């Protein structure tokens, strides 16, 4: 029987709709053999997801998606096998989380000045215990009928260049790779087709990038083939995932990306190599 994985899933520990346990149960119903939770700039959903996977017999790989910026472009770096997260790593995540809160505060103020009557308390209520972000602002706008969908909120108000957008502090992708490798994790560039910057990928490989997300909902067949060949050229690990956020992100669904388990085996072999190097 074929085995599949999804290595790009979000929970309400960041900007996903469902709890880690609910995401694991949904993945189980889809028949996945292995998954990774890759919340934005936080590891807070990892243990709940790990426990849920153990109960259901799903292989679990700890993960994260670190938000970075390079030359004005938002670049996301996925990290896998993060069991050795140390004080420096966690302090950097806390710094990034605090910057999210300040950013949303400024965005709500800007939207209020534009005549959109939403409150920071409401946005925080929607976010719950998770890392507050733009999807929660979009939901607040949707609840007040200022927009007809979350996608419309982003297109009209919350994306770069829009009247409600406020940039926030982000590290650069080279720093993210260094952070992940510093705890013996595996850094992978997420959905590279969104920016389609091959020159940057080359620079990141030189800096220690170990993998590339080939299969992603934003990648058409042309882009998928392009990044598959690029992975072969640079000897990079290959990953894939749905980038599922529940209903907090449209145009994607759990189960639309099913990564062949052979790529999980390659990831694990690389992790073993890194561990041997670390302790030699």
Walk me through this protein's architecture:
This protein has 280 residues and is α/β, with parallel strands linked by helices. The protein has two domains: 4-86 and 171-279, Alpha-Beta Barrel (TIM Barrel); 93-158, Orthogonal Bundle (DNA polymerase, domain 1), CATH 1.10.150.650. The chain is built from ten helices and eight strands. The chain has an eight-stranded mixed sheet with strand order 7-6-5-4-3-2-1-8. The longest helix has 27 residues, at 87-113. The chain is globular. The mean pLDDT is 93.
Please state the overall shape, judged from the principal axes of the Cα atoms: globular
- Helical stretch tally: 10
- Report the β-strand fraction as a percent range: 15-25%
* Overall radius of gyration: 18 Å
Question: How many discrete domains?
Answer: 2
* Number of DSSP strand runs: 8
Main pleated-sheet profile: 8 strands, mixed
Our measurement of the CA-to-CA distance between the termini, rounded to an integer number of angstroms, reads: 38 Å
Unreliable segments (pLDDT under 50, ≥5 consecutive)?
A: none
What would you say the CATH architecture of the largest domain is?
Answer: Alpha-Beta Barrel
Please identify the structural class as seen in this structure: alpha/beta
Which fold name fills CATH's third level, the topology of the largest domain?
Answer: TIM Barrel
The CATH C-level name of the largest domain is Alpha Beta
Order of helices and strands: EHEHEEHHHHHEHEHEEH
Helix content: 40-55%
